[in-house]
Amino acid sequence: MDVTLRQLDVFVAIMDHEGFGAAAAALGMSQSSVSHSLASLERSVQGELVHRATPVRPSPLGDALLPHARATLAAARAFHAAASAHRSAGAAGSIGLAVPPTAARGLLPGLLRLWREQLPHIEIRIFEGLDEEIEEWLESGTVDAAVLIDPDPLPRGALHLATDAYEAVLRSDHPLAGEESIALADLLDDPLLATTSGCETQVKHLHSLAGHPYRPTQRIRELTTLLSMVEAGLGVAIIPSLAASMMPDTLTLVPLLPRLERRLVLTGPTTRPWHPNVTAIRDLSEKHAADISGGRAPDVTTRAPA
To answer: Is the peptide bond preceding residue 258 cis, with omega within 30 degrees of 0?
Structure first.
């Protein structure tokens, strides 16, 4: 089978941009060249890869082959970066990093500032998504690195960035707002507003630990919408404490009992060698882990896989 990296790049770009024209613009190619490249790839795999409608969608064969195309391109990027790093001193180039929403607000600004100051030749493109999306993006090659929440098993080379806990979000005038901590049972009389932004599985587990049924009155994807609803007096919520930076002054976080913590780790993929730039940001972050995690040293110090 005669398949080139350029053909795979075109296929992935068409899928990502949902069209031939947008893919051509992103790749700096003519639309005719994009069409010819995809047609050549389809001849090689002996099947149609996309449905040529608007927006463009993958065919069943395209859907099956797209993750392999992404992984192949990610491996090729890592190959070229490793060769470049061998020829010259210092890391350079771009990588994609996926993060969950609460880490994006609570951890990412400090990390990006650190990386920009110490590794200015590495460009980091951010992808924000839910936990299950992020793991899929990482292994498929959509991104080169990710901040994962409580990965099991822990990837070899992963760096523990921070630990936080799930806490109750209350209006500042709520009767329990001034307590040092409250039991989950104390919230059962209030409508529970649940976020589906990567926290719901852990909040369900918290209810199970406390021996109470999980019965949200509303399920909201966006954390900002959830917080606005709590602010409007429509109920209470449970979110990770790293999300405190997203909250208005009219809301407060109160620690919950039983206490349920989560670990946030920085890692590369488990199924292929890491991009050299991922290793570079991981090693730099390890040196500054105490600052990143509020004074706590990381508990994972194994090296990144070669």
So the answer is: yes
Rounded to a whole number of angstroms, the distance between the first and last alpha carbons of the chain is 29
Structure tokens at 55: 């927006």
Helix or strand (DSSP H, E) at 243: none
Decide: helix, strand or coil at residue 277: helix
What are the residues whose beta carbons fall under 8 Å from the beta carbon of 39, sequence distance 6 or more?
none
Q: Which of 76, 93, 95, 83 is nearest to 3 (CA)?
A: 76
How distant is the alpha carbon of residue 278 from its chain centre? 14
pTM for the whole structure: 0.74
> Model confidence over 97-133: pLDDT tens digits?
999 988 888 888 889 999 999 999 899 999 998 887 8
Peptide bond just before 153 cis, omega within 30 deg? yes
Report CA 35 to chain centroid distance, whole Å: 32
Q: Over the stretch 207-236, which tens digit does the pLDDT of each residue have?
A: 999 999 999 999 998 888 999 999 999 999
Token couple for 11: 């296929």
Q: How far apart are CA 157 and CA 221, in angstroms?
A: 31
Residues present in the chain in total: 306
| Span 270-298, average pLDDT | 76
Q: Please name the helix (run of DSSP H) or strand (run of DSSP E) that holds residue 188, with its range, or none.
A: none
